[in-house]
Amino acid sequence: MFLDHVTVNGYMTVLLINMKRLLSHPNTKMELTVYLAQKSMEYAVQNRRRFVVSWACQCEATHQRTEHLQSNQVEADTKLILHALDATANGASTLEIHSPDTNVFVLSLRCHTDLCRNTYFATGTGQRRQRISLFSILLVQLKQLPSLLFMP
């Protein structure tokens, strides 16, 4: 017998789990999201880190009020960019946007002029993890601009 829903609380050991079914269950997804958000926030507070976490319509931060970041936006893509823009507006000098999603990468490139200079897009895991500087992509584009302007 495989379980398809487990209450996530950090102290439970589950032996027989079909992970794909477990993670696709709507209740498990939200409980896991809330659990990870809470644990991430606890870690950030303990280590005196500036940290913002957002899930569903909720948003919390270790260093600022977050009413202006509350959003019912369903797609995380645009929420990530909203938070990156907010961090830049609040003086961030370095940002890392973590996502496996190509849409987030494209959106971050589109907004790169409004983000701080040291903004990186981090994707992949383990040996395949990559950290891409959005500013370096801008420099490549600027170097190609003269040849694009004077094409026959």
H/E element sequence: HHEEHEHEEH
**Main pleated-sheet profile:** 3 strands, mixed
* Tally of separate helices: 5
| Radius of gyration based on Cα positions | 19 Å
Structural write-up:
By secondary structure, this protein is α+β, with helices and mostly antiparallel strands. It has a domain at 91-152. The chain has helices spanning 19-24, 26-46, 76-89, 102-110, 134-149; strands spanning 52-55, 58-61, 94-98, 118-123, 130-133. The strands form two sheets. It has a three-stranded mixed β-sheet. Strands 1-2 form a two-stranded antiparallel ribbon. Strand 4 and strand 5 (130-133) form a beta hairpin.
Can you tag this structure with a few keywords?
152 residues, alpha+beta, two-stranded antiparallel ribbon, 5 strands, 15% strand
Q: In terms of topology, how is this protein built?
A:
Elements: H1 19-24, H2 26-46, E1 52-55, E2 58-61, H3 76-89, E3 94-98, H4 102-110, E4 118-123, E5 130-133, H5 134-149
Parallel strand pairs: 3-4
Antiparallel strand pairs: 1-2, 4-5
Helix pairs in contact: 3-4
Briefly characterize the structure.
The chain is an alpha+beta fold.
